[in-house]
Write a structure and sequence with these properties.
The chain has a single domain, classed as Cupredoxins -  blue copper proteins (Immunoglobulin-like). It has 3 helices and 8 strands. The protein has helices at 4-19, 61-64, 76-86; strands spanning 24-29, 39-43, 48-55, 69-72, 100-103, 112-118, 128-131, 142-148. The strands form 2 sheets. A 5-stranded mixed beta sheet has the order 2-8-7-4-5, with helices on one face. It has a 3-stranded mixed beta sheet with strand order 1-3-6, with no helix packed on it. The chain is globular and about 40 Å long.
Amino acid sequence: MLRPRFALALLAFAAAPAFAADCTIEIEGNDAMQFNQPVIEVSKSCKEFTVKLRHSGKLPRQAMGHNWVLSKAADVQAVASDGIAAGAAQNYVKAGDARVLAHTRIVGGGESDSVSFAVAKLDAAGSYSYFCSFPGHSSLMKGTLKLVK
């Protein structure tokens, strides 16, 4: 027979993961140039956050490649333009671009990649966007990333 205090402690321990923040998200990009998540919420309690990008389409990366790029909302257009100039070999992300907070590599149909970043990089008052920087995709493939409690 379990003692009441021990039983309560055991229950609390077993339930703890249910209350823990989820610090990973899976997002899909498809051949219609769409992400399946318009908003990503990141808990302030996460030390690190991981985005797993999966290309759910069939087209190869040369024709319909996708990546996931995070920047401040005000920097999206400039980061996307500089990424196009950087080219496919650089995953359409300018090397050393300090405006880019995180990014995956370009993936084609059936492929996936992931990226992790320190949540401490985000400011609660900041406005953040994620997008695909493959040429012509950023106007459709975009979303908002929010830091939440």
